Amino acid sequence: MASMMADDFSPLDPESGAQHGGVQSVDRAITVLEILARTGDAGVSEIAEEMGVHKSTASRLLSALDARGMVQQNSERGKYQLGFNILRLASAIPSRLSLVKEARPELEDLVGKFGETVNLAVLRSHYAVNVDQAMGPSTLATQDWIGGLTPLHATSSGKVLLAAVSAEVRSRILAEAGLEPYTQRTITSRDELEKQLAGINEAGYATSYEELEPGLNAVAVPVRNHRGVVIGSVSISGPAFRFDPERIPGLIDELKQAGHSISAKMGYIDA
Fold first, then answer.
1. From CA 166, how far away is CA 110, in angstroms rounded?
2. Is the predicted pLDDT of residue 111 greater than 70, yes or no?
3. Cα angle 62-97-201, degrees, rounded to a multiple of 5
4. Same domain for 198 and 135?
5. Of 48, 65, 90, at which residue does a domain stop?
């Protein structure tokens, strides 16, 4: 009995043990939900093992969540999965989330780490529209891209957005937009573009080397919503003479992490 009580509460603050025991229970309940969101379903033993608690503790947590409709037990397999009340709660969130607001700290963090301009873009018609920007400190990084309509096939953000849509939607977009050559390096072949887009989905990022403007390079990653749909892209751009994104140590990994962080704030759970 003493072991069970210690496992359930283990207060962090001896002066407010009951309060912190309750906080720990809430934390554990959230952990159960996160496990089920990641795995799809899990049994009591699996959850207990992953959390490092007694089976009895995991069972009580699941029973409490089941009573509130947050989880439900599969009658055939005996495992638990997320319940329908999770959907009811989640449905109230997306309309209240602001992509620009949630992304802003990540944009500023990237500027602080790499000193180049960082943009947040979304798809509008057949353009990538920059909806927010964090400027780098260099006097060379002074162009204001906010509100600018940029071509999808000639920008890193645009390629990320193009790669995320279905082949049917992409065909319609490109039929309307065309493949205008902005520089000698702009991709104007549909076959070549499709090959690059396939590689983008596999690599998780897109690049643009002087394809929109001579002397301007950029790299971008996707941002997803709670359904896993790409709703935007985050890019870093800079002068070609100093900015080669695939040769700057850690840059692409940090950019990907920023994309994941923003996506998580928008409700996305990476399985």
1. 30
2. yes
3. 85
4. yes
5. 90
Q: Residue 17: which domain range?
A: 2-90
Residue 271 belongs to a domain: no
Round to whole Å and give the CA distance between 159 and 145.
17
Residue 118 Cα distances to 1, 88, 122, 151, 242, angstroms: 56, 35, 14, 17, 16
Q: Are strands 230-239 and 80-82 parallel, antiparallel or unpaired?
A: unpaired
Average pLDDT over residues 118-138: 89
E-assigned strands of 98-228? 117-124, 127-134, 149-151, 206-209, 216-224
Checking 142-151 for CB contacts under 8 A at 24+ apart, the result is 143/117, 145/117, 145/119, 149/124, 150/121, 150/212, 151/127, 151/177, 151/180, 151/182, 151/212
**Section 123-131 average pLDDT:** 90
Tokens of 99: 């992509």
Residues 138, 226, single domain; the answer is: yes
CA 191 from chain center: how many Å? 29
CATH code of the domain containing 187: 3.30.450.40
* Percent of the chain predicted with pLDDT > 90: 55
